[in-house]
Each structure stands twice: as C-alpha cells, then as structure tokens.
Design goal:
globular
C-alpha cells in the first residue's frame, strides 16, 4: 500500500515577491540603476561647464534630457535586460513551479518598479543634490526636487507594465524597440491638445511643468499654459495605465513562443558551432593541428544581423545624401551613425560568440587567440565601413580634402569605440555596455553638435569623429590608436575571465 504525498503548497504573494527579489539580487538588473548615477554625474559636469549665473530653475531645466529620453529608455532597458536573462535561462524552471501567474507577474513588476525608482533617484537626484550643496542659488526647493524625481518615475510605471506584458510574448529586442517607440511618441506628442487620450504622452506630460521646459528643452514662456499646470493628472494617468497591463493574461501565440525559443537558443548554437570547430566551408580546407581561428570566428559572425545591417547603413546614407547637402550632413555619420554602429557591432559580435565561450577556451587555441580574432574582425568591419561611407560622401560631392580626414578619423575612432564596447561587454555585461553607450552617444551629440565642443571636446570620445581639423586630429588619432591597443589587451584578459565564469 502506498501513501500519497501531500500536495505541494502554492506560494503566496509575499513568498513569490521574496523569491523575485532574490532572483535579481546579483544580476545585471540590480546594477543597471548605476547608469542613472553615471548620467547624473556627467549631467552635473555639463551644467557646471556652462558657466556661472544660473539659479535653481536652470538646474531643473537641465533635467529635460533625463525626463524626456534617458530615464524612460533606461527603464525600458531594465525590462529588456530581465527578459533577455529570463529567456536565456528559459525561466530558470520557475515557469513550471506551482506559482500563480498573476503573483509572478505582479512580483516582477514590483521588483522592476523599485529598480526604476532607484534609477530615477540617482539620475535626477544626483545633480540636484550636488549643485544644491555647492551653490545656494541653485538649491531646488524640497517639494520641486521631490516632484522632479517622483513625477517621471510614476509616469513610467504604465510603460513599464506595458513592456513587461509585451515581454511575456516577445523577445527582448522587441521589448527594447517598443520602449524606444513609446518614448519617442511621448516626446513628439507631449504638448498635443489631445494628450488626455494619447497614453504615450502621459510618460512626459507631467514632467514638463516640473522642470519648466518644452519637450524639446526650450524654457517655458511665462504665459504658457504648461507653466502653471499641475503635473499630477498626467502623472496619475501614466501610473494607472499599469493596472490593465498587470491584469491582462499572457497571449499563447505559437509564433511568438517559437520566436522566443529561437532567441534563447541561437547564441548557444553559434557558440557551440564555434567550439566544435570552423564552419563547414572552412573546415574542409583546414589542416590537422592548425585550427583556423580567424575563419571560425568569421563563420560565427556570418549568420548574424551584421550581414544586412552594414550594407543597409551604407544604402541609407547614400539615400539621405541624394537630397541633402553632403557638407552639412557629415555630422549624421560622425555623431550618430558611427557611434551607434560601433555599439551595435560589438554587442552583436559578443552576443554571437559569448554564449559558447567556455567551450571555445577549452580548445588548444585557448581564449586569447579567438578573442584577438573577434577584436580584429569587429574593428576591421568598423574601419571598412568608415572608409566606404567616406567614399559615399566623396561621390556625393564633398571635397577630397574633407573626405580623407573623415575616413581616417572614422577608422581610428570607430576602432576605438568598437574595442571599448566589446571589452565592456565581456568584462561586465551587455546591459552595462548599452547604458554606457547610450549615455556616451547622447553627450557626444550634445557636445559635438553645439558650441560646447570648443571647451569640452577632449572629454567626450564619442564626439571625436566629428573633429576633422588637423589641430584636434593630432590628439584624437594617437590617443584613439593607443586606446584601441589598450582595450585589445584588456579584451584578451577579460575573455579568459569570461571563459572561467561562464
């Protein structure tokens, strides 16, 4: 006679919440709020560089970039990072445990909402605290300072719940893309007369009267309706938007489920192929005892999105130049396409090779040679793209005297930024690399595209490709080459650590 085992007790909400906090305690999700601190410190330095004579209203106005773009995007990155980790681990078997799905979903939302609060506290609160302590005229009143932190955070809760619900059906890239679209729609339509019926405007509308600017950063006029408006109606709408998305069930779509499984399994498959040996075409020509490391790593990258992203980028620039003045459009490449391209290039490369890195390092080549091959291929792609795009500009009509500095500076700075992002991805996580890259690109545009470049240009390497005069190239080129060599050395050491810890 057998005795039936007692039924497994179903955890309650408090136990599920404790388990969710423990799940993310030492993950990239726990460290992402430090991106807010990094932005806050850089934003403080930028404000101080504009000179004296500012008061607390100017300090609040300088929060525009955080409230309109950086804060929402880092919150979206929180959800995307948690989704990517969860998909890669296939839920860590938690999806098959006796936990009520609404409890699990609410616990995930609570954990990420608190991380988002810390993110906003560090990103918006750091400049307010430092500038207030150093200058009495720049000390923001306590109630306005609290609003500058709480209003953006509460407004982001609806978007957070939306992305978290979307993450249950789609891969992390779709989540991050949806966050970007939602953020941009909010910025463009924040001052629309129909804001009350446009949910994406609730993300930004409440922050505008608090920081005292329009969505584009221009100070509000004294007679503007927004200047005297209350921030709370739009803020509460943004927070209440979370409720329906917390209640919505997961959609059981076969296509979406298959896409998530492919997203989770593709990096492992790529790494496994690399570990097993070169690609089939290369293996046929390889001689025993002489592994073709470069060909094997190139085979790993061959099946990634780089195969269409690179030609698509060249085609889009050529299309843009067909109806814009090439001389005035150089900044499109130097401040946007090049920095964003190097960020994507390094992330895609390490995403393809990193999952099987322990198996790669266990072969006779070790970790150093594949790491050097990966660095050489990615920096080579960045350099080749810079030369090709410079030729496109030359064909569009810029003088040859402008084309060769563009190609040379783009090659060096592109290699430097690519190796830096690759090193950061290997040494820390891809999420940290994304945060640093986004902040660097934003400040590169802010400095390189304005008069602030006259004094701050040496401090922002993300804007160095924009400086094509010989005087500044004499500094950026040698430093860029030395930095690339230093990051390459760091990549080999980080790759060994990554193999040990994977």
């Amino acid at each position: 006679m057998t005795t039936a085992l007692p039924p497994t007790p179903v955890p309650g909400l408090s136990a599920t919440l404790r388990a969710e906090f423990a799940t993310w305690r030492r993950s990239a999700v726990a460290y992402l709020p430090l991106g807010g601190l990094a932005f806050g410190l850089v934003n403080t330095a930028m404000f101080l560089s504009t000179g004296p004579g500012k008061d607390w209203k100017d300090v609040l106005g300088y929060q525009n970039l955080w409230a309109m773009f950086v804060g929402p995007m880092l919150t979206a990155l929180l959800v995307a990072t948690a989704t990517r980790i969860d998909d890669t681990a296939r839920g860590g078997a938690t999806r098959y445990r006796p936990v009520r799905p609404p409890y699990r979903h609410l616990s995930r939302f609570t954990v990420l909402a608190l991380r988002s609060l810390l993110l906003n506290l560090l990103g918006a609160g750091t400049p307010l605290l430092i500038l207030g302590l150093t200058n009495g005229a720049q000390r923001v009143p306590a109630d306005r300072a609290a609003e500058a932190v709480l209003v953006p955070w509460a407004s982001q809760l609806g978007m957070l719940a939306l992305l978290l619900w979307l993450a249950r059906q789609t891969p992390w890239t779709a989540v991050l893309g949806a966050g970007f679209v939602w953020t941009m729609l909010g910025v463009v339509n924040a001052e629309s007369a129909s804001w009350a019926v446009l949910p994406f405007t609730w993300l930004d509308r409440g922050a505008l009267p608090v920081i005292g600017t329009h969505a584009n950063g221009v100070a509000l006029e004294a007679h503007s309706a927004l200047a005297g408006a209350s921030p709370w109606p739009a803020t509460l709408l943004g927070a209440l938007l979370a409720v329906p998305f917390l209640l919505l069930p997961r959609l059981h779509l076969p296509a979406a489920r298959a896409a998530r499984q492919r997203t989770a399994s593709q990096p492992v498959a790529s790494g496994a192929a690399t570990a097993a040996g070169p690609a089939p075409l290369a293996a046929g020509h390889a001689r025993p005892g002489r592994p073709r490391v470069l060909a094997a790593v190139a085979g790993t990258l061959r099946g990634t999105s780089l195969t269409w992203l690179c030609p698509a980028t060249v085609a889009l620039i050529a299309l843009w130049l067909s109806w814009h003045d090439p001389d005035t459009s150089i900044q499109l490449f130097t401040l946007l396409v090049l920095p964003i391209g190097t960020l994507v290039l390094a992330l895609v490369a390490w995403g393809a090779a990193g999952q099987g890195w322990r198996a790669v390092a266990s072969r006779t080549t070790g970790a150093a040679r594949p790491a050097l091959a990966l660095t050489g291929l990615t920096t080579g792609i960045a350099a080749l793209m810079s030369v090709v795009i410079a030729l496109v500009y030359l064909a569009a009509g810029i003088p040859a005297g402008h084309a060769w500095p563009l190609a040379l500076t783009g090659t060096v700075v592109g290699a430097m930024l690519t190796s830096f992002t690759l090193w950061l991805s290997i040494r820390t996580t891809q999420s940290v690399a994304v945060v640093v890259g986004i902040i660097g690109i934003l400040f590169g545009v802010l400095v390189g595209g304005t008069s602030m470049q006259q004094t701050l240009w040496p401090l922002i390497p993300y804007s160095w490709a924009n400086y094509l005069d010989l005087h500044r190239m004499a500094l950026t080129l040698p430093v860029g080459i030395a930095a690339t060599a230093l990051f390459t050395f760091g990549i080999t050491h980080a790759a060994r650590k990554a193999a040990e810890n994977s």
